[in-house]
Design the sequence.
């Protein structure tokens, strides 16, 4: 019997520009298949983005062995980079930067019911 996979939970927040909210929602009604596959190939699962007002909350689980390397693979994918040229202009930072330069700011997990 193999050992259960270690799951890392990651959560982030960012604002959506009010004037581009509908554009952002439209984009996510039809996410490009290659973008989704790149995330799957990078061991990212259970990825969800929620919205309340103009605040976006994203959550995913990582089940690989090298999160940084897998994120670099995602960032290196030309289709994903093209996707970001459409989604990034819709977003704006809404909290003090915890991760300098990042648009989506990571949240610290303080509790988890297993």
Sequence:
């Amino acid at each position: 019997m193999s050992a259960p996979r270690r799951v890392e939970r990651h959560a982030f927040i960012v604002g959506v520009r009010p004037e581009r909210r509908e554009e952002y929602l439209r984009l996510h009604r039809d996410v490009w298949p290659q973008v989704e596959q790149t995330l799957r190939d990078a061991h990212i699962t259970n990825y969800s983005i929620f919205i309340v007002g103009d605040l976006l909350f994203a959550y995913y689980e990582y089940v690989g062995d090298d999160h940084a390397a897998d994120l670099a693979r995602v960032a290196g994918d030309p289709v994903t980079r093209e996707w970001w040229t459409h989604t990034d202009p819709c977003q704006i930072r809404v909290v003090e930067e915890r991760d300098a330069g990042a648009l989506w700011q990571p949240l610290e997990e303080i509790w988890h019911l297993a």
About this structure: The chain has one domain: 8-100. Residues 8-100 form a domain with the Alpha-Beta Plaits fold (CATH 3.30.70.1090).
